[in-house]
């Protein structure tokens, strides 16, 4: 028994030594293993590309441990947080969403991608731009603050991935992207709610009506837009194609992907993923949970096959950590964000016509 125990200890010690030895080969599959930099890469790494060895349970947090900076020179993708919950209609707390997603991203930054085995950040220059600042005591100033924050990034030819935050944030983000790319954009929306309920108040902060305004204002084209996972009723979906959760459960991933591709075609498209698209069993940490939704595995499988879409921007919203259990909601959101970045990396390396903020 002592012999077996000693053998196991030696084996573990050997693996750990290789894990943190900067002279090891790439065979072990850990990004950053050849770097001399150990820990706090978010603030200590000087290069945009490459990874560093981190202790998953400690250190300075950023999304996927990327450089925490507002220097956009040479950047492909900027990740930013929108800590908003002023527009919620049920449970608040999504202002803590960006922080929760960053915390849940640490393991994803540790290994090569699955299933492709890519060292994602050898090819894609991603930074964490930090959070959008606004004054929650002055609600009417919030939308323009978010819009201007986004414009500062995308006007520098940088692709924007936003972490939320309640879903209202997509409205000023759409305005910023339309200002850059022209209107209308197509919308791919994963959600339990259509968010197109009528609203006669143009200045209202409501995370259930912002796409009503977006359609009315011509920010998105309903004829080339699609909503996936819907399981709440609306008298008028305003012409947006709806594949509700029942439809998704009755069809294959490939059939769903084909419907999405056919709907948006090659139009410029904004992707928004409300985490409540997932069933509460997979995402309890959200403000308005609705039973009967997608599983995390279903969502990931679909996203992985949407690489042909002409994306101009993306967001993940409605993560409310205080209602979460074991971080499973934040982990789902972080994983989806990671999958989005893989799509963008593949566009950069395979689809040479995709120029991020220049297209």
From TrEMBL:
InterPro entries: Agmatinase-rel, Ureohydrolase, Ureohydrolase_dom_sf, Ureohydrolase_Mn_BS
Keywords: Hydrolase, Metal-binding
GO molecular function per UniProt: agmatinase activity; metal ion binding
GO terms, biological process: putrescine biosynthetic process from arginine, via agmatine
Listed Gene3D superfamilies: Ureohydrolase domain
Pfam families, A to Z: Arginase
Origin superkingdom: Eukaryota
Family: Belongs to the arginase family. Agmatinase subfamily.
Name this polypeptide is given: Agmatinase
Organism: Adineta steineri
Lineage: Eukaryota, Metazoa, Spiralia, Gnathifera, Rotifera
């Amino acid at each position: 028994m002592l012999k077996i125990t000693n053998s196991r200890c030696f084996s573990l010690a050997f693996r750990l030594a290789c894990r943190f030895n900067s002279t090891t080969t790439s065979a072990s599959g850990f990004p950053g293993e050849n770097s001399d930099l150990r820990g706090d890469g978010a603030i200590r790494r000087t290069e945009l590309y490459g990874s560093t060895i981190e202790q998953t349970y400690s250190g300075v947090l950023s999304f996927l441990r990327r450089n925490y900076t507002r220097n956009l020179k040479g950047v492909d993708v900027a990740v930013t947080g929108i800590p908003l919950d002023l527009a919620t209609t049920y449970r608040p707390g999504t202002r803590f969403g960006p922080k929760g997603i960053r915390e849940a991203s640490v393991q994803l930054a540790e290994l090569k991608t699955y299933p492709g085995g890519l060292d994602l950040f050898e090819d894609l220059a991603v930074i964490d731009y930090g959070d959008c600042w606004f004054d929650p005591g002055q609600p009417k100033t919030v939308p323009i603050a978010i819009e201007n924050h986004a414009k500062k990034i995308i006007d520098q030819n940088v692709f924007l991935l936003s972490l939320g935050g309640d879903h209202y944030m997509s409205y000023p983000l759409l305005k910023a992207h339309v200002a850059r790319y022209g209107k209308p954009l197509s919308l791919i929306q994963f959600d339990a709610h259509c968010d197109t309920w009528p609203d006669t108040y143009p200045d209202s902060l409501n995370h259930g009506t912002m796409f009503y305004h977006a359609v009315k204002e011509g920010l998105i084209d309903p004829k080339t837009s699609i909503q996936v996972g819907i399981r709440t009723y609306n008298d008028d979906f305003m012409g947006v194609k709806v594949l509700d959760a029942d439809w998704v459960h009755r069809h294959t991933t490939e059939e769903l992907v084909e419907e999405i591709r056919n709907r948006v075609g090659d139009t410029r498209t904004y992707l928004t993923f409300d985490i409540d698209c997932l069933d509460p069993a997979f995402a309890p940490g959200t403000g308005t949970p609705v039973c009967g939704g997608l599983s995390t595995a279903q969502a990931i499988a679909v996203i992985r096959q949407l690489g042909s879409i002409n994306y101009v921007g993306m967001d993940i919203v409605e993560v409310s950590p205080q209602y979460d259990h074991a971080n499973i909601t934040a982990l789902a959101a972080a994983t989806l964000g990671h999958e989005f970045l893989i799509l963008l990396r593949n566009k950069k390396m395979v689809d040479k016509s995709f120029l991020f903020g220049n297209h």
